[in-house]
Amino acid sequence: MDYKNSGVDIEAGYKSVELMKEHVKKTMRSEVLGGIGGFSGAFSMAGFKNMEKPTLVSGTDGVGTKIKLAFVMDKHDTVGIDCVAMCVNDIACAGAEPLFFLDYIACGKNIPEKIATIVSGVAEGCLQAGCTLIGGETAEHPGLMPEEEYDLAGFAVGVVDESKLITGNDIKAGDVLVGIKSSGVHSNGFSLVRQIFGTTEESLSRYVDDLGATVGETLITPTRIYVKALKAIKDAGLTVKGASHITGGGFYENIPRMLPEGALARVNKNSYDVPPIFKLMAKEGNVEEHVMYNTYNMGIGMMLAVKAEDADAVVKAVNSAGDQALIIGDIVAGDKGVVLL
Predict the structure, then answer these.
(1) How would you classify the pairing of strands 32-33 and 42-43?
(2) Which of 51, 92, 178, 207 could form a disulfide with 304 if both were Cys (CB 3.0 to 4.6 A apart)?
């Protein structure tokens, strides 16, 4: 009896590391000290030591049950982007620049080529966010997970000068809401998605004219990363008073998280076109509108609160970074919360 006979293939682990190195190398920032494959990752503080009060901001998340689509479609090169996005978008809401990222993959069986493909997506997400994939772990769990399945989670660390933290404390009546468009469903609410569409090869390969793609292709589209958009606003000398990453809980749960007491967010739901995938979900799943806005991003992945006089310039800055922004609401005095008009 040996370790391999018990279900853990150490040699496969070595091969996975070798295959993923080419992807990891692409993400290296100058602050990274040491090579790939050590017991830990070292990151120099030299780049931000001149900040008055450098403040570390961290976030951790996973891909959730969206990963089931990757299994069925045998497509593993995008879920890593989702994993990075879910973490770096959260810390970007605080005004932080993502510095480095670590991933954790738990699998039933280590298939090196599959693991390397997953990590290629993580690396791509890091490139989009401008951070380094500084380390990670692949854990083989025979007997605990089916051989063909895996789970993916990550952890990001960023930095911001304390004086530049986005807290939402200064949001007040008269401020304007700028929404940045999503790339689709992103990585939340997939338990309901799977109930609506199913997760068979047949159901996911169904082509829908309104989508211009199959159901599966539309749903597995990776989460949009908003780091560059927020950096573009900062570089333009503009101030974001509050930022909300629209994830699980949709508009109703996430927008109030950036608001101080006495501030009510009003969103004009007719100010932009809701992507076809959400309309299809509501129709085929017979899902009420309130539930849709309480579960999904409905086409807006990031919500910003800015001064009214800055709103047009903020939209321009975001668009210049390759995203799509538009004014979709405002802030009025009232009980802390959100209403859709």
Answers:
(1) antiparallel
(2) 178
Phi then psi dihedrals of residue 294, to 5 deg: -95, 5
Q: Is 335 exposed, middle or buried (0-12, 13-18, 19+ CB in 10 A)?
A: exposed
In the sheet with 325-333, reading across from the earlier edge strand, the strands are 242-245, 300-306, 176-181, 325-333, 263-267, 337-340
Distance CA 27, CA 5 (A): 36
Q: Token pair for residue 269?
A: 């739901």
**Cα 37 vs. chain centroid, distance in angstroms?**
26
Contact 171, 243 (CB under 8 A): no
Q: How far is it, in rounded angstroms, from Cα 154 to Cα 61?
A: 6
CB 274 within 8 A of CB 298: yes
Question: From the CA atom positions of the chain, what is the Rg in Å?
Answer: 21
CA 31 to chain centre: 24
Residue-wise pLDDT tens digits, 245-300:
999 999 999 999 999 999 999 999 999 999 999 999 999 999 999 999 999 999 99
307 near 233, Cβ under 8 Å?
no
